[in-house]
Amino acid sequence: MKLDLTMNDRFNQRFQSVYGGLVPQIARLVPFNDSEVTCILLIYYKYSLQNGPSARRITSSQFVNIVIGFQQLYDMDVVDRIVTLIAGGRKHVTPMEFVNYMTILMSRDMERKMEFAYMVYDKNGMGINREIISSSVERFFAGDDDEILEMRLDMVDFLLLKFDEDQDGYISFEEYRSIVLQQPRLLEFLGPIFPSDETRMVVAYCTAIYSHIPEMATL
């Protein structure tokens, strides 16, 4: 049986041989069913084929392009952080890591989204400090005249005042979480990380993750 009509028999058989056993294992660990995991791994497999007919993994460079395309995300600092968090700085991305990325992409779980967003912003793993905030705010206000510089400083001061509850110069995860739970729109207060609802639905349709499409999940 052909799983993907865009591939010939040989590649369909090789996919089932290499990844077929992984499907139930991964499906037990993620919020996708077997069919959805199969579809996600088919995408992974097709990217891996670009590295040669016997390749089994995709490269981090390929994954960078996937993140940009799937999320319509063009801030390369954020893209690089996402890739680093998923792949751990290695040159390749494993099938499990790719599926985990898709779970983050599709997630509506605020707790998980807060945890991931904070890790993206916390570049040094020591808390979000003034330097990190300043670097992000620079992208909000383009230019270098005095008025723009003053607006940036005001925004940095405002965000620290808003989030840094103990005023130690660092925004901890607990402080970030406390504010975001009160005001969910501040989830991405230092710039976009997650795809829009529209983009997420397009990805869900294109990857056949039907359980994450509200009108289809109820059928």
Could you give the order of strands across the largest sheet?
1-2
| Mean pLDDT, all residues | 92
Poorly predicted runs:
none
CATH topology of the largest domain: Recoverin, domain 1
Q: Tell me the fraction of residues in β-strands, as a range.
A: under 5%
Secondary structural class:
mainly alpha
Helix-strand pattern: HHHEHHEHHEHHEHHH
Radius of gyration (CA) equals: 20 Å
**C-alpha end-to-end distance:** 26 Å
CATH architecture of the largest domain, please?
Orthogonal Bundle
The proportion of residues forming helix, as a percent range, comes to 55-70%
Could you describe the largest sheet, including whether it forms a barrel?
Answer: 2 strands, antiparallel
Give the arrangement of secondary structure elements.
Elements: H1 9-19, H2 22-27, H3 34-49, E1 58-59, H4 60-71, H5 76-87, E2 92-93, H6 95-106, H7 110-121, E3 128-129, H8 130-140, H9 146-163, E4 170-171, H10 173-182, H11 197-206, H12 214-217
Antiparallel strand pairs: 1-2, 3-4
